[in-house]
Amino acid sequence: MNQQFQAGTRGIRYAASQGLAMVIMEPLLGGRLVDPPAFIQTLWDQAETRRSPAEWALQWLWDQPEVSVVLSGMSTMEQVQQNVASADRSGVALLTNGELEVIRRVRDAYRALTGAPCTGCAYCMPCPNGVHIPRTFDRFNQGIMYGNMEEARRRYTHLMSDQEESILASSCVQCGECDGKCPQGIPVSQWMPYIHDVLAEGREYRPEESPA
Length: 212
Prior knowledge:
By secondary structure, this protein is mainly α. The protein is built from eight helices and two strands; from the N terminus they run αβααβααααα. A two-stranded parallel sheet has the order 1-2. The mean pLDDT is 90.
């Protein structure tokens, strides 16, 4: 899911080319990939090889020649045994073209679930009132993508510290400065108060009620 996030795959390949070992943190996105929505699970079930969603994620990482170590949080002995067994079955370039195509379709299906088409380019920044617009969109979209709005609400409120009260979308005064900068044409100033209502005020997310 994070091939293009921060340094992404390109950064991993560059670092490895300089002789650096690659250690992967949160290979399951903090557990968000473990229990997918039903229609995502249907895509996994179409693969010739049957794997749990967690093992698909781990095998995709082990398939990369640059990856040295995968750090996966485990809370039970059963999970330890499953992860060790998955690592034992892994190897570089073991996934078939058909399996990689299934992974691509799953990735695209997750991304299609986003509520707002924000790409995180940050052209809308800086906000004159201190709202971190791309991060706000990211928290909101991930809550929708992974079917866990409660986690999204926790992560959203963690954006605020005693020194950064204005970082939340409630500080948006809808000045419109960001709207003309967005290459995706997102009406950002309409989304900010809506997202704050959903993530901080408990409003139920309904796609038909969201800004156009």
